[in-house]
Amino acid sequence: MKVILLTSKKPTQVALAARRAKVCELSAIVLSENVPQRRSPDANRIRAYQVASRVVGRPFLQTWRDMMRHYEGRFPNLPETRQVRVRNVNDAATTALIDEIKPDLVLVSGTNLVAKRVIEKCQQYGPILNLHTGISPYVKGGPNCTNWCLATQQFHLIGNTIMWIDPGIDTGALVTTERTSLTGRESLLELHVAVMDHAHDLYARAVATVARGAKLPRVEQSSLGAGTTFFTRDWNPLAMVRAQLGFRKFNANSIDRARELAKGVTLVALPAEG
Q1: CATH class of residue range 3-34+43-264
Q2: Other C-beta atoms lying within 10 Å of the C-beta of residue 56
Q3: What backbone torsions phi and psi does residue 14 show, to the nearest 5 degrees?
């Protein structure tokens, strides 16, 4: 099976690539610098968010940095395979590589929003899947859905989603969704590492399902109800304060309540082996 991974050089993504390589051989990895192809109309807001993160959102910024160091120590190197570096995942070099390799499967994680033309190019040869933290359709978007679950105190939605990718923001049909197993006694860093480890494991199981020839689920998000899409521009000082207050309420009792709330959430399971 020929597989291409579209990702970035962030340590969390290097870890994901290393773990994918243990499930199936990667034919190539496209490493995007995630440079926008055009100036975002929200560029000024994003800069303001970055400044706010250094002050009001310092606990989350520090946790992110600590998590990067954590994965850099555990997975210092990308798997040995062909690497193509691009400024943006939608660059011409990406589509040229897809035409050359004709992959049976394309995996996406940690890149810019993939353009429709790139998606359609991938679909000429096989499916294209995406990893998303948070349980869709109930919570999606960015910059980090775990933090949004803290800000909204929706602890029962802390988890991960694998979806068929489409041009929207986390709007594709669902392959599988799972809650991350938590005790409520995790530090902020331990919480984020637990979610990321679970994300890598869930993606690996989805790829293994394809590798053994089983059919992946395709569940339209609209069939499961509505949710909330968050945007980077929404991650403002007020949201950061709400997330910090939410984390203070994240404990064993809140996890028990989350298990009760989770009964109203429909999850999508991968097909069983055998």
Answers
A1: alpha beta
A2: 18
A3: -60, -40
pTM: 0.92
Q: What is the pLDDT of residues 130-163, one digit of tens each?
A: 999 999 999 998 889 999 999 999 999 999 999 9
Q: Which of 188, 182, 177 is nearest to 155 (CA)?
A: 182
Question: Which contacts qualify for 144-147: CB closer than 8 Å, 24 or more apart?
Answer: 144/60, 144/235, 145/230, 146/191, 146/192, 146/195, 147/60, 147/235, 147/243
Q: Residue 111 carries which DSSP code?
A: S
Cβ count within 10 A of residue 235: 25
Interatomic CA distance for residues 128 and 143, integer angstroms: 22
Could you tell me how many helices (H) and strands (E) the chain has, helices first?
9, 9
CA dihedral for 249, 250, 251, 256, sign (positive or negative) = positive
Spatial distance between the Cα atoms of 30 and 26, rounded to a whole number of angstroms? 11
Q: pLDDT by residue (tens digit) across 45-61?
A: 667 666 767 788 889 99
Indicate the DSSP class of residue 74.
Answer: H
Q: What residue has token string 């099976």?
A: 1
DSSP code, position 12? H
Phi, psi of 70 (to 5 degrees): -60, -50
Helix (H, G, I), strand (E, B) or coil at 187: coil
Domain positions in the chain are 3-34+43-264
Instruction: For residue 188, give the amino acid letter.
Output: L
CA distance 84 to 111: 14
pLDDT tens profile 197-246: 999 999 999 999 998 899 999 999 999 988 999 988 888 889 999 999 99
